[in-house]
Design brief:
Elements: E1 13-17, H1 24-30, H2 33-41, E2 47-51, E3 69-72, H3 84-98, E4 102-106, H4 108-116, E5 120-136, H5 138-143, E6 153-165, E7 171-175, E8 183-186, E9 190-193, H6 201-213, H7 219-231, H8 236-247
Parallel strand pairs: 1-2, 1-3, 3-4, 4-9
Antiparallel strand pairs: 5-6, 5-7, 7-8, 8-9
Helix pairs in contact: 3-4, 6-7
Length: about 250
């Protein structure tokens, strides 16, 4: 009598390419930004790994095939900058694109993906701080119909750079009153989101205070951002469904 053996199913593996240093607040409250992202996206049985890209830590070429997908985070740096770690990240992203790995870019990650694919980024006309309502395009809503994504999608924003020009063959997915390209996709394996689906209100409030202390924003920016938090809430559940479905390969792109 033969004995049948089942191959043990390998857990899905994802990498977080952290492009900012953890603030004291985020470390104390969430265990760092890695904890913020894994709290939003990770599921039981998955293997999530941290690479501090801002310090030059990136997966080696021979490690990439182990991964099912990557998340590129926000940053205090400019996606159009030429610091060594940024250029190394761009090279890695080009490699991931070639290998058709799933990559989700958030804020700076959205912009650096655009750059790696041949698009253009730069300074926006003004800061976008607080809760902004973005509007997915009709074709995006049809694409995401199985996720019940609403036509008006509030998200926390914190950026003064933006995508100026989409890469060739990329498709804009959403816009807002302030930003023309709030989301884009490239094929079925690359997605950029300008806003911060992973942020909670307390993260934004702490960040606004730190930006104000460093004179990177003015009082009216801070007041407007804080006021927006009293008007509406970010639709974290819709964003969670969207990001997880894309990253885990259940979204029919």
């Amino acid at each position: 009598m033969g004995i049948e053996t089942e191959e043990k199913k390998q857990p899905k593996t994802f990498g977080v390419l952290l492009c900012a240093e953890d603030s004291d607040f985020v470390k104390k409250t969430y265990g760092g930004y890695f904890g913020v992202f894994s709290g939003l996206l990770a599921e039981e049985g998955e293997d999530w790994r941290l690479y501090r890209a801002v310090r030059g830590e990136l997966p080696r070429g021979d490690e990439i095939d182990q991964f099912d997908g990557f998340v590129v985070t926000g940053s205090c740096s400019d996606a159009h900058g030429n610091d060594a770690w940024i250029l190394n990240l761009v090279d890695l992203l080009k490699n991931l694109v070639e290998k058709q790995k799933k990559v989700l870019g958030i804020c700076f990650g959205h912009q650096i993906l655009c750059r790696a694919l041949g698009g253009k980024t730069g300074r926006a006309k003004a800061w976008d701080l607080g809760i902004t309502c973005i509007h997915p395009s009709p074709s995006t809503l049809r694409l995401l119909s199985s996720l019940n994504i609403p036509p008006h999608l509030p998200v926390i924003e914190c950026h003064r750079d933006e995508v100026w020009e989409l890469p060739p063959q990329a498709e804009a997915m959403a816009q807002s009153e302030k930003t023309g390209i709030e989301m884009f996709r490239y094929g079925g394996h690359i997605m950029g989101i300008q806003g911060h689906p992973e942020y909670s209100k307390d993260i934004l409030l702490n960040l606004v205070d730190r930006l104000l202390q460093r004179n990177l924003i003015q009082n009216f920016h801070a007041e407007a951002a804080k006021s927006s938090l009293n008007v509406k809430d970010p639709d974290r559940e819709s964003w969670k469904r969207l990001c997880k479905s894309f990253l885990k390969g259940t979204l029919p792109l």
